[in-house]
Structures are given as C-alpha cells and as structure tokens.
Write a structure and sequence with these properties.
Two copies of one chain form a homodimer. Chain A has 222 residues and is an all-alpha fold. The first copy, chain A, has ten helices and no strands. In chain A, α4 packs parallel to α7. The interface between A and B is small, with 8 and 8 residues. Chain B binds a DNA duplex (30 and 30 nucleotides) through α1 and α3.
Chain lengths: 222, 222
DNA sequence: TGAACTATGGTCAGTATATGACCGTTGGTC
DNA sequence: GACCAACGGTCATATACTGACCATAGTTCA
C-alpha cells in the first residue's frame, strides 16, 4: 500500500461518511426538510466540504437512492437460478421482496412516495428519469419471470404479460403498504406473508392449472 | 461530537500512525539505520508531514521510548497495594517485571542497550537525561519497597538500600538477559522464573529471617 | 589526502483539502 | 409588496500535505 492509495481510501471514506449522514436524515424526513448544513453537521464537516464531494444536494439524494435501488435489484435478480420453474421464481421473488422491505421500511416508504408521483421534491428531469428507470427495473424482473414461464411452457403463451406483471407488483406493494405502517409490529410480518401467499398462489394456480399438470403438488408443499 | 473534535481526533490518529510505523522500525533496527523517509513510507505519508507532527527524528524516538517506559512504570507501580508485605511486593514486582518483558522483548533489549551506555545513538543531552530519569524511576520502585519494608519493621533498618536495590535490579536484568535471546523458546520462561525465584527468595530470606518471625511459611506457599 | 559521491535530516514553496462568511433566491408573513 | 428567515450554493481564506531541494556528514577512490 502506498501514499496515493491511502489518499484515495481516505477520500472514499469521507464520501461514505457524508452519504451515511445524509441517508439517515433523508429517510427520516424526506428531501426538502433536510438541509445541506444539517448533513454537514452530522458528518462533522463544513458545508463547503460537502460540495467538494457532491455537486448538489440533489446529487447526494440521487446517489443514495439509486445505489439503494441497485442493491435491491441485485438482490431481487437472484431469483433466476438453474432448474427453477417460473411459479417458484414468482414465489421466491415475493419472499425476497417482503424480506427486503421488512428490513428497510424507510426505503420502501420512499419508493412508494416516489411512485405515487408526489412531486413535492421537484427533482431535475434527469434524476426523475433515472429513478423511474431504476424502479422499473424491478418490475422488469417480474416481466422476465413471466417470459421465462411462457418460453418453458409453464405459463400459457397468450397471457397479458403487462397485466400480470402489474397485478403482482400491485399485490405486493398493496399488501406491504397496508400493513407496514399500521397495526401491531408483532403480527405484521405474518399478515403480510399470508396475504401475499394467498393472492400469489391463486394467481399462479389460475395460470398454471390449465397447462401445467406435473407440478407434483407444488402448492401443497408450501 | 462536533467539527473541532473530529479534527482533533484525526490529528491524534495520524500521530499514532506515525508512532506505530516508527516504533516497529526502531525496535527492529535501532535508531540510526531507520530513516525518516522509511517511517514516512511505512506510515503512507510524505516526509514533510512527519515534521508537522514531530520536530525531529529524535523526538519521535524519545516519545516512543518515554511513553513505553511510562506505561511500564505505571504497570510496575501496581505492586503497591494495601495489606501487602514488602517481601510479597518484591516477589510481585519480579513477576510483573518478567511478564512485561517476556511480552515485549524488544523494549527490554533497547533498555538494556541504552543502560549499557551504547552511545552509538548520539542523542541530545536532554533526551539522554530524560531516558536516564525514566529508567531510574523503575529502580526507584524497588527502593520504595525497601523503605516500606523498613518502615513496617519487615526489613532490618540498617540494610544498605542502594546495594539491595541494585542487587535485585541486577538479578532481574541479568537473568532475563541471559535467557531472553538464547536457548529454546519453550524452556525460556520457566528458566527465567525459577532462576529469579531462587535468587529473590534467598535474598529476602536473608533479610527477613532475622527480624520477621510470623511470616507463616510464606515461602512454603509459593 | 582531498575531491567527488552518496545518504540522510530537515526546510519550504507549491498543492490539495477543508472551512464558514457571504450571496442570491425563494417562500412565508403582515 | 416590503420585509424577513432559511436555504442551496460559492469562494476567499485557512489548514494540512507533499516532495524537490539544501546542508552536511560520512564514504569511496584516485
């Protein structure tokens, strides 16, 4: 390890410090109520220093959110594995989806707020597009599962992919939203999982019992 | 925690980085063979930066050695405890002394080299005096034990304190020196401890069996 | 022996990084 | 619509770091 390397590391560390301080506040209060001064204070830096690492408050927010969504997308993409059927993938997808947002409720809340087009944050067009693209990439995963299911003959070829995709997407977000910030903490996870399970199983059964006959009691195993 | 506090911490951290890099090299190679450039390299800093934290190479060495000796002195001073006899203190002292230098052989070697007046390091007079004062503080601990023993009536009041002090000091250093850098690692500690024990017990017995009669088989317990 | 060379402790002008007073804008108040 | 407060963003200044440079003290070799 040399001198240049050390400096690089220190810079990266400082960047992370800022992002960490900012993330906490953004996720607690939203975009506008958080000031650059408060991020600086939390990070134990001056305001000017923040602007040495990021060119605007918006860029900080963008990097946090886009990186969070990327991580999430990476995690969710792990549903694609050799030897898995499309139905199984959909169920795994929902499991991971629920797991993830149970562990990071604030991220979920923020994504929901964003998708509900609460444009009180007046982001630049670029950031808005990036965020839309990023959130869509999650929906694309569902779509890919559907296509895979059709290609493998597990799902009927004439289903409306977009409709199915939106239904599952809506089911997940709806159920999670319904329970995540209401009701008793203790019952929350169970309620979410059982509601999604019922909805998803019904959905898949509706698709598959016409064409797929050799699933060997897949749902009975659950 | 605020901004000033953070900067202070970072400065202190950098100081420690330098000292750590320097200590390793000084203890491996001695004073002269270690260059400021090599310390800087190890610490992943430029040479100039070293001089922002220390005014000379000698000061670095001094701070390391004096701080090491201070720590040692603090440790060794823990022999003074309520309800202990002077003989017990001397035995505890030797235990701690041996423990310490078994764990930090290089410090022992350096102190020995220094005390043997190997003045190949041409330190400034000030540093030399500081080092002498620091090393003497250890010897003073033995002297204090002697005085305590005399005050409490455990040791005869007419013993030559300086002579006794030097004898024990010499015994410890001699035995440790003899074994520390020779012979098999496995047998080393046992040999040192038994040699010191024999010497010290004999010494104390010679002092105490005249005056102290109620020690209740102190040595038999060992 | 002494000139040339080398290695090293220490310096300092130049560069990189960090700071916070300041500016223009905006949104709220009366 | 004049005032104000609060904010994002800027920039002159301050702080921290760097490495080419210097003086000197050994070392080599003609």
């Amino acid at each position: 390890m040399g001198l240049e390397e050390r400096k690089k590391k220190e810079k990266e560390q400082r960047r992370k410090t800022i992002l960490k301080a900012a993330r906490k506040q953004f996720f607690e209060k939203g975009f506008n109520p958080v000031t650059v001064a408060s991020i600086a204070r939390k990070a134990e830096l001056s305001k000017g220093t923040i602007y040495l690492y990021f060119k605007s408050k918006e860029e900080i927010y963008a990097q946090i959110l886009l990186s969070d969504i990327d991580k999430f997308h990476e995690r969710i993409s792990s549903v694609f594995q050799e030897g898995k059927g499309a139905s199984e993938m959909l169920l795994d997808f929902s499991d991971i989806y629920i797991d993830y947002f149970l562990a990071d409720r604030e991220l979920f809340r923020i994504l929901m707020v964003f998708m509900l087009r609460n444009d009180s944050m007046d982001f630049s067009e670029e950031l808005n597009n990036d965020l839309i693209r990023a959130t869509n990439s999650t929906i694309d995963v569902i779509e890919r599962i559907f296509r895979y299911g059709i290609d493998e003959g597990e799902f009927p070829p004439d289903i409306n992919i977009r409709q199915g995709r939106n239904a599952i997407w809506g089911l997940l977000n709806g159920v999670i939203s319904l329970h995540l910030f209401t009701g008793k903490e203790s019952a929350r996870e169970r309620k979410i999982r059982s509601a999604v399970k019922v909805g998803l199983e019904g959905f898949i059964k509706g698709l598959t019992n016409v064409y797929v006959t050799d699933k060997k009691g897949f749902f009975e195993q659950m």
